[in-house]
Amino acid sequence: MARRRSLHDELVTSIREMIIDGELLPGDRVAEGELCEEFQVSRTPLREAFKVLASEGLVELIPNRGCFISAIRVEDVAEVFEVLSHLEELIGRLVVERATDRQIQDIVQLHETMRACHDAGDRTRYFKTNLAIHIALVRLTGNDVLATFCELQMRKIMRARAFANADTLRLNESMQEHEAFMQALLARDAATFGRLLREHNERTAVSVIEQVTNFQDPA
Predict the structure, then answer these.
(1) What topology does CATH give the domain 2-69?
(2) Tag placement on the chain: N or C end, fewer CB within 10 Å?
(3) Does the pLDDT of residue 2 top 50, yes or no?
């Protein structure tokens, strides 16, 4: 069972990255046969992976037609950011109250990795590490309901957030915002940490929505 779960997770992760990296574009029909050959799997685990990706809003499963890459709807992205924004201060408070010093140091290490990616201009690794930090933070709340919900919502807007990577100004601003809220976390200042997380989410939302809108309607 553990081996099957590992294969399942590997498939989900690999296909998710193909979608986020633009190898599979909105509206594309996913070629099951080609993916089966590429990953050396049967259609059954592949279709199980599709169900997870469908729950994240990355694909649509259409009966008798197959699996298609979902369009990015600005309205959906805005709604997810709106919900997450109202949860950030709760996340900040719970992390400060419940995280151990060792767990906070693990976040610091991720932050330092992200800073190195930023300084090296490695936007792909920067983006992945950035997401890893936010997922790690919500898991440190110790609230499984909150963590499961937020992680799913974060994954739903991963493609949209990737567009903001093209905005160098926003990339630099985001790095500065991470530096600020990490200082608040290290000081275990729950109020400041939660506020800065919320403000970071709100600024990211504005940038992401603008970038997605421009991509869909360049005129």
Answers:
(1) Arc Repressor Mutant, subunit A (1.10.10)
(2) C
(3) no
Q: Which CATH fold would you assign to the domain 74-216?
A: Four Helix Bundle (Hemerythrin (Met), subunit A) (1.20.120)
Residue 15 tokens, joined = 């296909």
pLDDT at 4: 47
For residue 33, what are its two tokens? Answer: 């046969």
DSSP string, the chain: -HHHHHHHHHHHHHHHHHHHTTSS-TTPBP-HHHHHHHHT--HHHHHHHHHHHHHTTSEEEETTTEEEEPP--HHHHHHHHHHHHHHHHHHHHHHHHH--HHHHHHHHHHHHHHHHHHHHT-HHHHHHHHHHHHHHHHHTT--HHHHHHHHHHHHHTHHHHHHHTT-HHHHHHHHHHHHHHHHHHHTT-HHHHHHHHHHHHHHHHHHHHHHHHHHH---
Domain residue extents for the chain: 2-69, 74-216
Q: Which of 28, 39, 113, 115 is nearest to 72 (CA)?
A: 28
Q: What is the distance, to the nearest Å, from the Cα of residue 106 to the centroid of all Cα atoms in its chain?
A: 19
Do 2-69 and 74-216 fold alike per CATH? Answer: no
